[in-house]
Sequence to fold (60 residues):
Amino acid sequence: MFGIGIPELIIILVIVLIIFGAGKLPEIGAGIGKGIKNFKKATSEDESEPDKIEDKSKKA
Fold:
């Protein structure tokens, strides 16, 4: 799609390793993973869920 192959990915990984160091890589990976998880959750939420919340507040 963008023409990124294995050699390009290796170069990017080496640059990231030089900039952030080996100690920060797990933290960066965890942060990216959480971000992707939150994005998927936000995009896949059913639009009818806010109605359920409104119904509960009306009953109370």
Remarks:
- The radius of gyration is 20 Å.
